[in-house]
Amino acid sequence: MTRLARFVRFTIAASLCATALHAHATITVTDDTGATVTLQAPAQHVISLAPHVTELLYAAGGGAKMVGAVSYSDYPPAAKQLPRVGDNKALDLERIIALKPDLIVVWRHGNAQRQLERLRELHVPLFFSEPHHLDDVAVSLTKLGQLLGTSSTADAAAAAYRQDIARLRAQYASRPPVSVFYQVWDRPLMTLNGEHMVSDVITLCGGRNVFAGLQPLVPTVSTEAVLAANPEAIVTSAPGATQPDTRLPQLDTWRAWPALSAVAKQNLFAIDGDLINRPAPRIAQGAQRLCEDLETARSRRKQRAQ
């Protein structure tokens, strides 16, 4: 073999090796909008644009790689120390640029379309996080772990979460149904429809969301509509609602209608909204609390029937 032939063979082999290494380093996942997100290497400087995203990133093992987050990113406690880059109403684009992210995880429903277009102009990879069902949380953890290069941590968190949800589903999903009005806001009176993950939680616990069929995702309802639906249980969400001796006027208001089934049966429950409204691993804790509340409603039903 001539020197030239050996050189050509070496060059080809080196090129193939480099191509293989490059292909191995490339990370490609599909986000929750169906778009393909490709990184040439695991992300090292990540920005979260939603509180639930912050929780997902930390659970997936990416806490040390986060360089910024929006307001209300308060869990885990370390997230409170992250530089703020705005909120769901307005992003601080200059701050985002200054932080030099190599991945931005976005919540489409929380960030204005105009601002999202500006983000695209930065040519930084965007991963849209839009989990709609309980099982999507585990899938999100796995995908984020791939993008972060922390798959071992992310996969373990996903497995633990799936185990928690499976346990609750086996214990409660087939229990006698309880009709539920889930009150997410009181002025105006607002709820969540069947497309929201909270409705999945209600079903998981053997409940039935009385306003599952409404539109949009967070519909406004009237007091008259709630009275007509006559739910057996009313559950309201609020920060710190599960703390002892916490009084919630939004629940007390319903006592003005003693004939309402939830009032007559004393099934007015409160739950910490951060545990159940955010599509992140802690929703398993919120589900546990809701399932226990609905089981209490079943016990009171049984006692009244005796």
Short account of what is shown:
InterPro entries: ABC_Transporter_SBP (IPR050902), ABC_transptr_periplasmic_BD (IPR002491), Vit_B12_bind_prot (IPR054828). The chain is α/β, with parallel strands linked by helices.
Notes on the protein architecture:
It is a single chain. The chain has 306 residues and is α/β, with parallel strands linked by helices. It has two domains: 135 residues, Rossmann fold (3-Layer(aba) Sandwich); 133 residues, 3-Layer(aba) Sandwich (Rossmann fold), CATH 3.40.50. It is 43% helix and 14% strand. It is built from twelve helices and twelve strands. The strands form four sheets. Strands 4-3-5-6 form a four-stranded parallel β-sheet, with helices on one face. It has a four-stranded parallel β-sheet with strand order 10-7-11-12. A two-stranded antiparallel ribbon has the order 1-2. Helix 4 links the parallel strand 5 and strand 6. Helix 6 packs parallel to helix 12. The longest helix is centred in the N-terminal third of the chain and has 23 residues. The protein is elongated and about 65 Å long. The N terminus is likely disordered.
Relevant terms:
306 residues; alpha/beta; Rossmann fold; 2 domains; 12 helices; 12 strands; 43% helix; 14% strand; Vit_B12_bind_prot; ABC_Transporter_SBP; signal
